[in-house]
Amino acid sequence: MGNERRDERANILPVDAKGDLLAFLRSYLNDPSRIREAALTDPMLKQVGPVQRYVVCLRYNARDLAGKYTGLKDRLAVFVAGRLDQLLEQPRDICNGVEYKPFPELTRLTR
What we know:
The chain is an alpha+beta fold. The chain has helices spanning about 5-10, 15-30, 105, and strands at about 30-40, 45-50, 50-65, 75-80, 85-90, 100. A hairpin with a 2-residue loop joins strand 2 (about 45-50) and strand 3. The chain starts with a helix and ends with a helix.
């Protein structure tokens, strides 16, 4: 199978990007409760390294183990075959100038 065909299958629009992110962040964050300033973008096709992938830019302010807010963090969620594949901590220029929308589901997340 050619690389072009393989890339087509890898670049499926995520059906439930929010749900995938919520499930992941519930276990990823030290304290997933009482998150502030949560926002994200719609899935968009962007160049990630040598390939194009659907990505979602994500922004939130979570608490650390001591219960203190750590400040606004930007993340890049990369999707492969319509599912969350990885969450990058330094989205660089991919998320510059994008339109964020409120993500209230993340602010209501519990353990």
